[in-house]
Design brief:
homodimer; alpha+beta; Arc Repressor Mutant, subunit A; 3-stranded antiparallel sheet; 11 helices; DNA-binding
Chain lengths: 233, 233
DNA sequence: TTCATAGTTCGATGCTAACCAAAGTATGAA
DNA sequence: TTCATACTTTGGTTAGCATCGAACTATGAA
């Protein structure tokens, strides 16, 4: 009985269209202001404000004030993973659109999942790193190997800084589009940042789609295959 | 915008206390009749009937008629996994009860997750099998090895029959209590069945808790450690 | 200070949906 | 056929909550 109550409490927070749209927007990973989220949800500011208060009270959102702005973001990765899993069920049993539009295809290929790369590209990267021994998989735990630390440092990531943080460096995250794991954690986030900094890929405006440039895609795939694909800076 | 709508649609189905209690009850893995679910949710039969219709229409439940009974069960494993992930968020940010009661402790140790073993025991089993090369982990894919096929057949499972079904033999399922994977799929379900048949463990009445008997626990742990722990029948 | 922007709080409205009782349908047993 | 059980449908009530406009607070800029 109690399990059901907890379940309902969390689910009902997600179960309102306005709130769900806000949460979906925040799956993009960037923190957004109350006004932006109001736009996103298609409601007025007062309404949005009330929703945001409920989501924050419920523990799904984290808020930081900056001047006269209030930036809202998903509370943590567990919340993001939960939303992905709900989206997964929705996608599985709601192929209302027969043909997956170009947008959906792009989402399946590469998208942002909170702050790291997901979709086929994300899964391919995860598998490649594991296969080359850059990360070690033990059950659901994923750990950086010595070899991996060297490689990723060479790629431009500050591994030491990542280790200092509370957030795990490596984590696997289940992918609804392919039902396999991809790389999350600060390493996953860092890699995506690098891809964008290197102009291998860019985020599509107002969407979670990640678009690789043709040369970026080539460089990305070369990197997956072998060490000489490294592009130091 | 569309993503949010889908999200809300599914989440709102779970977001009602009566429905959530029904779903939580069905996480036990056994199919239940409409009357039983009405009891579970604390509502009258007509109300329950309406809820069950909505859950079925929404694709979260599967119904089979048997005489004048209607048995309801979760639609598939993806739905079960989604519910676990929502429960995970609820558990993480809702430690309203400061002390985890004995019930919660037992749930963390060993519980049923739809039809297979979860909790610390489930995770330990998953890790042990992986460590001994009985299953091979590749990203989120889990596959039975030849060595594993031999071992599990010796343990009393009909591996060939499992391979004939559409359901995957091995699958990993993320565990909210320990944040690691445990073994799902028909192999996971089959193992739990064996444990119960061997009287190593039994299901606690009206709960998802799995209780190991003292000799059962010992046999279970011996099995995890080495091949000679095998208890053919 | 004064004005503007960002956000919250308040009060009122209206819609949705959860709920139950009673009547209706279907299946099985006598 | 008749009765009982299991469930669904219908109709009507009620409660919750999403929504908005208007007033209020707080931060920053002129």
């Amino acid at each position: 009985m109690k399990a059901g109550t907890d379940l309902a409490q969390i689910a009902s927070l997600v179960g309102d269209p306005a709130r769900a749209n806000m949460l979906a927007a925040l799956m993009g990973g960037t923190a957004l202001t109350a006004s932006e989220l109001a736009m996103e949800a298609g409601v007025t500011l007062p309404t949005a404000s009330a929703h945001l208060a409920r989501l924050s009270d419920g523990g799904l959102l984290r808020m930081t004030r900056q001047g006269r702005h209030r930036y809202y973001a998903l509370a943590d990765h567990q919340v993001a993973a939960m939303l992905e899993s709900i989206m997964g069920v929705a996608a599985a049993l709601g192929p209302r659109k027969v043909l997956p539009g170009p947008r959906d295809t792009a989402m399946r290929e590469a998208r942002i999942c909170y702050d790291h790369l997901a979709g086929e590209a994300g899964v391919a990267m995860f598998d490649a790193f594991a296969g080359r021994g850059l990360i070690a998989i033990d059950g659901d735990d994923v750990n950086l190997t010595d070899k991996g630390a060297g490689f990723f440092s060479g790629f431009g990531l500050d591994i030491e800084a990542m280790r200092g943080k509370r957030r795990p460096v490596c984590r696997s995250c289940l992918d609804w589009s392919v039902r396999r794991s991809h790389l999350a954690g600060s390493l996953g986030a860092g890699m995506l940042d690098r891809f964008i900094a290197l102009k291998w890929a860019r985020r599509e405006k107002n969407s979670r789609v990640i678009r690789f440039t043709p040369p970026g895609r080539a460089a990305f795939e070369k990197m997956l295959r072998a060490d000489e694909g490294r592009t130091g800076a």
